[in-house]
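Pasting as-is:
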Amino acid sequence: MILEMKVPSPGESITEVEIATWLVEDGDYVEKDQAIAEVDSDKATLELPAEVSGIITLKAEEGDAVEVGAVVCLIDTSAEKPEGGATEKVEKKEEAPAAEAPKAAAVETKTYASGSASPAAKKILAEKGMDAGSVSGTGKDGRVTKDDAINAVPSMGTPTGGSRTSTTSKMSMLRRKVAERLVEAKNTTAMLTTFNEVDMSPIFALRSEYKDTFKAKHGVGLGFMSFFTLAVVRALKMYPAVNSMISGKEMLSFDFCDISIAVSGPKGLMVPVIRNAENLSFRGVEAEVKRLALRARDGQITVDEMTGGTFTITNGGVFGSMLSTPIINPPQSGILGMHNIVERPVAIDGKVEIRPIMYVALSYDHRIIDGKESVGFLVAVKEALENPTEILMNNDIKKALEL
């Protein structure tokens, strides 16, 4: 029996996938539930398991975009498993020829003097500062003619003798979808960005004192993301328009905070979602950030884990970015950009002190969020980060950190 394996639907609204990698070869024997391919959708990379055991015949090439429901391979379930193992290739027997073919006559090989040039061509090329070897000749035996020399175009710039090769590679479906969404965000939103700076000294002091105890107790580090996530949750409650989005001609507001966090995965940028962040503690946020980051890194993130989100936090600071204008993650209306932390001179009570400063940026859709709300939101985030003990921990550090 020959089974046609079709592309299953990876999630709602996904109509096609791309064959990223075949994990087996044509003619291999595969076991049921064995991963036979990795496929890219516009949201994630997923494994395609074999539906039955048998010999596989591939019907799509790596890089092909195939529609959901299309046949990508055939599996012959009547084939017996080879002794060498499940993935051993089953060789096809070739029939013996009916008669021996006559021996081919000896063929004389001819060496072409490619790159040689006529005297007239040499003179023209010399005037152009070109070498005959860099010109494709159209004359007999590849000889460079006068016309070839006249039509030859010298490369611009100073000759260096270095390599001038280039390569072309196909963008993955995930990368193409990210590109489409970025252009969509720029073209369909009235995006504006407001900036502020945060003195990270209080958070540095808390982490320095409690990070070892926190990790020993909970098995996760006390990073910056928990402080920023909880500061954002508080600010979203204060300014609900930032936790809203446009739906047709209506404004859709949420009473929960699903925070999307931008992480770099092997296939590019991914944005998994921390659900109901308003109900999480410092430990809860750090544990969820670690879980999602590991799944994204290992290519295990699912479509459901990246669907939704009411607000996004992105951290370009891990790559050394000092300042940027993050692009909104549609259909959301706001995104907070974190950046690197640099010691800078600041005025404190009339005196100059050196403090660890981070620039933060809020990009927002001006169609739904006014300037007053956007600035107020970012100031609220700044206040919480610069006074975390009082605002985020209710003056009880050990209880907030569950120590």
